[in-house]
Amino acid sequence: MPVVDVDPDALRGLTGHTDKTDEEFKEDLFGLGLEFEGETDDGELQFEFAPDRLDRLSVEGVARSLRYHYGDDRGVYVPEVNDAEWTIEVAESVPDERPYVTGAVVRGVDLDEAALESLIQLQEKLHATMGRGRAKGAIGIHDLAMVKGAPLREGAERSITYRGIEPDGETFVPLDSNDELTPAEVLEEHDTGRTYADLVSEYDRYPAIYDELGLFSFPPVINGKRTEVDTDSRELLVELTGTDQWTIDKMCTIVCYALSARGATIEEVEVAYADGATHPAEYGPELVRPNLEIDEKSVSHDRIETLLGVDFEPEDVVDCFERSGLDATYSLDESVTYEVEVPPYRVDVLHPLDLVDDVGRAHGFDELEPRYPDVGTVGGRHERTRLEDAVRTSLVGLGFEDLLNFHMTSGVENYDRMRIEPGTDVVGGGEPVEITEPYSEEYTQLRTWALPSLLLLLEGNTHNAYPQDVAEIGFVAERDETENTNVGESRHVAGAVARRDASYEAAKGRLQAVCDDFGATLETPRTDHPTFIDGRTASVVVDGEPVGVIGEVHPEVLVDHDLEVPVAAFEFDLGALR
Amino acid sequence: MRLPERQLAVLEAASATDERTTDEIAVETGLKPETVTGAAFDLRDEGLLAVTETTTEVAELTDEGSDYVADGLPETRLYRAAVDAGAADEAVAMGEVIGRADLAGPEVDIALANFPRKGFGTIDSGELTVDPNADPDADPEAAALETLADGGSVDDGSVLDRLASRGLVDLAERTTRAVRLTDAGVDALMEGVEAAETVGQVTPDLLASGEWEDVEFAEYNVEADAPAVEGGRKHVLRRTADRVKDVLVGMGFQEMEGPHADSDFWINDCLFMPQDHPARTHWDRFALDVDPMEEIPETLIDRVETAHRDGWGEDGDGYHSPWSEDFAREVALRGHTTSLSMRYLSGYAGAELEPPQRYFSVEKVYRNDTLDPTHLLEFFQIEGWVMAEDLSVRDLMGTFEEFYRQFGITDIRFKPHYNPYTEPSFELFGDHPETGEEIEIGNSGIFREEVTGPLGVDCDVMAWGLALERLAMLTTGAEDIRDLHGTLADIDFLRNAEVSY
To answer: How far apart are CA B167 and CA A117, in angstroms?
Structure first.
């Protein structure tokens, strides 16, 4: 879950509630779903929240939510925007993998250290969330005074260009460096470059942003040093590139709202596509950004009432909308429907239902009285788990300790230590379902049988008293192309008798008792299985079907599991007792 | 008169004129002392014997005391070493004497403290002088230790107290019992007492022959511990699961069943989880190296893709995330059992469902989490949902209050939350029934229309999930989940975990 660092002094300033204590803020923010997590080294408060309201990733966004919460603000707010002076030209050479760009110009900026830090934090948090680690969207913020744009096109005064270049096609001095490097060199030699190298290293051409003086930004990896922002910067150029236009536009909007809250003025930029350049399908060949358009959705009064289980007056609903930073109008027809305006920084409103949630939060979910739904249904257990339970009861009655083992295991445990091999026609010898890119050598596949788990447990309990009679009814799986999932899943019944006098007879007596419980006919014709001692191994045949194996476990298996007592065991398919 | 054999033996060994201790009688009769004592009390209750009890203080050597009997008391060893070193004539450096006496560790302090106390000499400025007139051989403490070691008794209470305070003897109280025949006992013996036959065990013969009517059954020490019996028992987590299932069936829920290995379509896409959601990266899921799932209803795939790309309903927006059918068909271990809910709600698991319905499962899910005392790679998820017309948040709250009340968790709090698949969503918090601390006990919400719509459900569905292990840790007090679940489990822990019901 995202975490936002909040400077409480900045919060007091931005909300205008200069008398609020840190504790009061913590309480108020908890009500908004931001949970206090702790303090940073320099005394900022950290809050964790669910990843829906990403507009709250900065102290400015948190302050805005609080002002609505306190009733200081109501309804939709959209900052004033001045007309464009700058153009972002999109060249044909832009890499196909990262075709989209957006941006804004911000003027009248006055950033102290704290505000600058907050801006950088917002940028990083947006990268981590919406930007999917900069892959989907990356933000570059530049000191506009250091950008030199000549008019490249009639109608635009100044411009920069988004293009694709050869990995070694140009040099620039990246941030945190003094060396002239090519983009390819940045990926190899620069710390930040190495961190993000995977995002672009497969590209034929690298993304690059140029002004009249040359390359000044290498998105999504690093900006050039020339345009670095500091507390003296008064005018900013914000550019974003990515794989999805909507995502970078929303990230841009959230950054613009944050800077606007600090008193800056937002100015549009035009995005113009050269012939052959990719422009986003949902828009024409020319964009004006940032996109601060208000979205509209309609939701019926009836839906709000049924979903929250509360009767409302329409004015109350409108009040809730306005306190949530939304605007709503309605007509008093037979059925009331609200036309709701949603401000552009909201990235979580995908459906009218999301507006009902806002009404619920504004009204206060705490206010709702729980009620047990007046709906009659008949309950019952699934046949499979009932059978499992009945067999478990039989085994426990015979003195077996019921076990619960992991379904994931390794080939070593499942086959090697049991002296069997995958793809052989013995119980447990099925082809393994393996985990792609396993994280641990201990868990690389699903178990094909349960007996290895029982032996592992016995191995871990040699310090405890004997007898140890253990059993498990559990999930096993093997490759099976006849299944839709390509995985054959079943439940096996496995039991092991570990004690000084454990013998084939001891195991068979218990197996016979289980079969008798279920009216099943048991036969045990002799068979071979590498896990068991030759001549003391039988196939478990239930009602004429071979369904498992029983025998005395081979000394090599016992010794390998550090066992100093004999073990007799059986394993068969649960379905045989159906 | 007939008496059990051992009572008769005690009665015959007792005297009308002299008191005899039970120990003496035990030696004479060959019975165990406790048997004699038991029989004596039985005879007293019959009025045949008088029993008198005397309590005496007995002293027993401790291990340290025994060591000193063998080696000599540290102060005595110090004295002798000092004499050898010539300290009777002039002061000798203490270190030299200690070395010569072969004292080590705490013995040094013991020797130095007791040496002057017993008048063996003086210690001054690190030098030691002995009193040539002292006589360690006459030391009453050493003598008392010797006596006790030889099995004798020491009467000097002050010496014993001193030895006890030095930790060389343990003082304990011992009760001796002595018996004497009463007049009635004498009369009984005069009239003749016969031994009743005692038997150890009820046997088939005894019962069949009717002999049981004439025998006495040998008495047992019924307070003694019996040899341990290990019965089998159901796994503690299974029992918790059973309890959950009982409660849910009682509330009208039907149990679901379905595959552990499933396509991402059923696990995530149906749930309106965007394909680039962090939980769907390979870091969080266990992908399996099998071929993709071929059979998924085409119309369902189309509708789910539409929901992801364009949203659902007139005013719906999609996710602005990539969506690929190939990814949807990949097979992985389910990260939640909501995949079962999707299969049932769509009608794919069986019949098309008409509202109202309630369904649940308590089944295993797989997540690539860090293994620690509260997290496993595999755990059980309790999953439940209610499908009905016009369900409200209040119905959701009422249902969960009822469910958790069954486990002693009352006063649950609903904290508004965000899930990609439910809106509104709530995290559920309650108070730990033992510690009272606030804990998260579940996640819940009403399925979004982007979830229910593509599945063909046109009423409301509310759902919730909870890790069974969390509930089990609450109800069993287990602190490390690895004690319970998996091959690292301790069989003793499983055998001794308190039964919950």
So the answer is: 70
Contacts of A350 in chain B (CB under 8 A): 311, 316-319, 450
Contact A342, A250 (CB under 8 A): no
Domain-embedded: residue B501 = no
| Closest CA–CA distance from residue B225 to any residue of chain A (Å) | 17
DSSP secondary structure letter of residue B288: B
User: What is the domain count for chain A?
Assistant: 4
What is d(CA B8, CA B196) in angstroms, rounded to the nearest whole number? 9
- Specify the DSSP class assigned to residue B267: I
Structure letter (DSSP) for residue A96: T
Residues A282 and A303 in one domain: no
What pairs with residue B174 in β-bridges?
B56
Residues A111 and A232 placed together within one structural domain of the fold: yes
Domain span holding position A360? 295-367
Chain B residues within 8 A of A407 when measuring between CB atoms = 260, 364, 366, 378
Closest CA to A267 of A141, A80, A82: A82
Give residue A197's identity as a one-letter amino acid code.
Answer: A
Helix residue ranges per DSSP H, A344-382: 352-363
Q: Would you call B486 helix, strand, or coil by DSSP?
A: coil
Q: Of all helices (H) and strands (E), which one includes residue A64?
A: helix A59-70
For chain B, say whether A36 makes contact (Cβ under 8 Å).
no
C-beta atoms of A487 and B259 within 8 A: yes
**Residues shown for chain A:** 578
Flag if B377 and A467 touch (Cβ within 8 Å).
no
A48 and A103 together in one domain: no
* Domain closes at, from A70, A93, A127: A70
Q: How far apart are CA B66 and CA A548, in angstroms?
A: 64
Residue B252 to residue A379, Cβ atoms within 8 A: yes
pLDDT tens, chain B, 501 aa long: 788 888 888 999 998 888 899 889 999 888 888 889 888 998 998 899 999 988 887 888 888 888 888 888 888 888 888 888 888 888 888 888 888 888 888 888 888 888 888 888 888 888 888 888 888 888 888 888 888 888 888 888 888 888 888 888 888 888 888 999 999 999 988 888 888 777 888 889 889 998 888 787 877 878 888 888 888 999 988 998 999 999 999 999 999 999 999 999 999 999 999 999 888 877 688 999 999 999 999 999 999 999 999 999 999 999 999 999 999 999 999 999 999 999 999 999 988 999 999 999 999 999 887 777 777 889 999 999 999 999 999 999 999 999 988 888 888 889 899 999 999 999 988 877 677 777 788 899 999 999 999 999 999 999 999 888 877 777 666 677 777 777 778 888 888 877 777
Question: Searching chain B, which residue's CA lies closest to the CA of residue A450?
Answer: B487
Range of the domain at B102: 63-171
Neighbours of B478 (CB within 10 A): 20
Burial class (CB in 10 A: 0-12, 13-18, 19+), A364: exposed
Query: For residue A13, what are the contacts with CB-CB under 8 A and spacing of at least 6?
Result: none
Shortest CA distance to B454 belongs to which of B302, B327, B340, B341? B302
DSSP label at residue B46? H
- Identify whether B95 is part of a domain: yes
The minimum CA-CA distance between A357 and chain B, rounded to whole Å, is 5
- Closest by alpha carbon to A514, among A381, A401, A382, A400? A400
Cα B103 to Cα A460, B97, B118, B119, B126, distances in angstroms = 46, 9, 18, 19, 16
Global ipTM: 0.92
By the CB < 8 Å criterion, does A31 face chain B? no
Left, alpha or beta for A254 (phi > 0: left; psi -120 to 50: alpha)?
A: alpha
CATH of the domain at A276: 3.50.40.10
CB contact under 8 A, A382 and B255: yes
In a domain, A127, yes or no: yes
- A192 shares a domain with A317: no
